[in-house]
């Protein structure tokens, strides 16, 4: 799921993530010429294949939230959506006749796009992440990072990391879920040095040194998306897809979903919700989750 | 005596000397959400370091921050010409989660300057009127959006009849040339749709040379100006340039192919500074004054108000809008002094009249 104010390149980046992953022939979605303005929660499924491995990826683009003059509680529809997916899964799970493979529409990862102001996080960013880091894995990403020089980038990242820490916002990979020392050292390095990833997205190709690369062409140079000295797109892609994909799913299932489930059971008096059991009717899905049940 | 040559061809020189002696003052307001490179651009424009010790507060501190208005003054001298530049900043604009009405303090500030000028102009001692009116507002639009955002529109609509607006796209090095064009086009369309009146550059005189006309047309075409600011000089190849160095190249601030910085600077400082001041005085201020006086006209004097031009005399009879207490007190004291002096004079005159009357009677009696 990708979130952030409109115009931060969310749709482009998401397209870039897959385009650079998939060979030019096997795309199963239609390539649009212009990027349409996303105005609602849109979930699009892609089936991608690589080396015989098939994966069904669902990308959820969100409305340009944060665009209005008054943005209070604009995270609520998104929170609601995430909880609805947990609810769907829960319902399937407690069914007497369960499907062998429960369709999993839960959100495994949320890419939060931070505007590259160069100063610090915006109050809206803080509010949003505070609320949502409790229900979903958030990976903060600095959008349109081609407006920052190397020094500005590193200073900005430091400030953002500090602000997140001071406000108790745990982004993925969360410290408390590191399984062993190996995990911890690997994740520590990512948490303290690389994140948030400063990315640039593009769906256009240019010729550079005889190769065709994805990039942005300006009068003062060509920014190559997959060049690590230009931006960290490749790091983000590798992190989300090549190394931590499975872990993202596991944390979602074992931690976030379990938290939701426990709370729902508590709400229902310790009884699992469902129609088959004692005719109990499922209480409505809450808009804001209650604090984590211990 | 030479009948054909009187000598008033020397007038422009006299004007020039007087203006240079007087110096120029200019108040520039900078507005837009934080992080768009406003401070850097101002420093680049005027080659100063006005924002050296500025601290940008953290996000959590800005959660409930209300908009503040900050004024910074600097005296710049170049080639013997002195300019007293006042910069008005609006930190906190567009920062909060809820930005409703966050533009009201700005509107109030602009009107207060008009108010002050109106008072000074209507006052008795008009020798040293300080002009603190805002002559121009540079409004920064984000290059990351898809045009004007609702907040931009709300702000612009609130101030466009009160100040000269020059829209500017900040951090324009985020955009590729095609994107810049598309964004400019979109903004121009939106401004038209929302009926927002930005500062209109006056047309060239028909007798200007072609070069100048072309330059002028180019400049008008490039509004809103897509700018990049920098206070650093980088060595690109052989020559040092003001710019921003990236791994993929260096953006040169003063390169017209890279951004519109030169256009903005030329327009703001070299060619249109005086016009901005004149439009502020002749159009925006007069509009404010007329609205103000009309709304304060007493109900019985409706015929007076309906006359096309309100004379200066009637202005002093109609109560002026409320000013902060200190100024009102000062005004009251001054007026009291005035009254006392006039009363004294009246008494003197009355005494004189009585005397002459008495004398007259005496002489009559005699």
Automatic annotation (TrEMBL), chain A:
Where does this one sit in the cell? Cytoplasm, Cytoskeleton
- Where does this protein chiefly localize? cytoplasm
Cited InterPro entries: G_SEPTIN_dom (IPR030379), P-loop_NTPase (IPR027417), Septin (IPR016491), Septin3 (IPR008114)
Its Gene Ontology cellular component terms are: cytoskeleton
Superkingdom in the source lineage: Eukaryota
Q: What are the alphabetically sorted keywords of the record?
A: Cytoplasm, Cytoskeleton, GTP-binding, Nucleotide-binding
Any single Pfam family the record assigns to this protein: Septin
The protein's job, in short, is:
Filament-forming cytoskeletal GTPase. May play a role in cytokinesis.
Official protein name in the record: Neuronal-specific septin-3
Q: Which organism is it from?
A: Catagonus wagneri
Organismal lineage? Eukaryota, Metazoa, Chordata, Craniata, Vertebrata
From TrEMBL, chain B:
Q: Where is this region: Disordered?
A: 346-366
Q: Where is the signal peptide?
A: none
Keywords attached to this entry: Cell cycle, Cell division, Cytoplasm, Cytoskeleton, GTP-binding, Nucleotide-binding, Phosphoprotein
**Keyword Nucleotide-binding listed:** yes
* One Pfam family of this chain: Septin
Q: Which Gene3D superfamilies has this protein been placed in?
A: P-loop containing nucleotide triphosphate hydrolases
Tell me yes or no: is Protein transport among this UniProt entry's keywords: no
The entry's cellular-component GO terms read: centrosome; meiotic spindle; midbody
Q: Where is the composition biased (Low complexity)?
A: 349-366
Where is this protein chiefly located? cytoplasm
Q: Give the subcellular location.
A: Cytoplasm, Cytoskeleton, Microtubule organizing center, Centrosome; Midbody
Subunit info here reads: Septins polymerize into heterooligomeric protein complexes that form filaments, and can associate with cellular membranes, actin filaments and microtubules. GTPase activity is required for filament formation. Interacts with AURKB.
For this entry, the protein name equals Septin
Q: Which organism is it from?
A: Catagonus wagneri (Chacoan peccary)
